[in-house]
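Q: Predict the assembly, please.
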Amino acid sequence: MTERYSRQELFAPIGVGGQAKLRRKHVLIVGAGALGTGNAEALVRAGIGKLTMVDRDYVEWSNLQRQNLYCEEDAVGRLPKAVAAEKRLQAINTDVKVEVHVADVGPAELKELVAGVDVIIDATDNFDIRMMINDISQKYRIPWIYGACVGSYGISYTIIPRDTPCLSCLLESVPLGGLTCDTAGIISPAVQTVVAHQVTEALKILVEDYQSLRNKLVSFDLWKNQHTSINVEKVKKESCLSCGTERTYPYLDYRNTTKTAVLCGRDTVQIRPPDKIERDLEQLEHLLQQQGDDLQRNPYLLSFTKGDHRLVIFKDGRVLVHGTKDIAEAKTLYHRYLG
Amino acid sequence: MQLIINGEKVELPENVGNVSELIQYFGLDQKVVMIELNQEILEKSKHSETILSNGDRVEMVHFVGGG
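A: Predicted assembly structure:
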């Protein structure tokens, strides 16, 4: 087992000392999709101390082309991504403490999740949650690494509180949701290239080699053979509400968070009850038995199909309404079957 | 006009004169885009008033959400 990290220790900027630091560090990955699984696998193999991973979704066949921790069995069983990821990660490296949560993340959850965390990795698919991560990072002074991709294009930026501009400074306005729900598809090398940028920056932070951080906004298009980076240091704004002198962390205010969300390119709406509830899935199964075309239950969720729509009900009260992008229609179905 | 965009020489039609028009030409006007012109970051509010000249070096990065 002593050989396990030898190649990483031979790499001078990490060395034996850096490896020892890695073993004491805790990483939070928000999202267990393509970027999340890629980052998780690399960091768990690298031998960090602890990984916390959170995701609200479950494994589907369309994930298998690029989400490297999942296999066919997980898609057949509709396993929550966090559960399937944990299984695979522990098979890869038992040295690392892996903690997973099947949950949708809002400000309250984030606050709990970041306790003791050294770096947060963004593996989400929308800007609602990224703005929350950005605020929590500033509030608790934890670095975070933005990453995103679509088609053959990818982008990444590392935010170090007090040193670099934050995501709010960079964006000026929050991109519309439509950006994530592109029908442009995605190829796995675009994912893996963003992952490579995120993991490398995370390793630098974890071994405390801050001098080596990239400090630039980087983007690439693998199909068009382009690679760009921009020095964005100057866009740091003193008036920024997330990182400036009069900061209020606007995105941590629950009133500013979305309770319904259209999921990326999935023809799916997620509905999250305003207050946390624990659903009795067995009881619900009885209730819905006679109403739909198909009904399936596993320990984590209940899947209910009626005509062109499928409702997936999670234990924590969340419901995914498949077969629509229309929030109102999704809410109607939600209330029709779940009261 | 010829510009160097993301390190590549690109020939642009006559109707592209300022940075806003350049962003539009690449179909990125609905997205959040960061522009560096001759190694200086350009604020969004300056996009339409900033005239491009032959040989300018432009770096363009647009934000996406997928992951």
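Strands of chain B lie at 2-5, 8-11, 33-37, 40-42, 57-62. Chain B has a mean pLDDT of 93.
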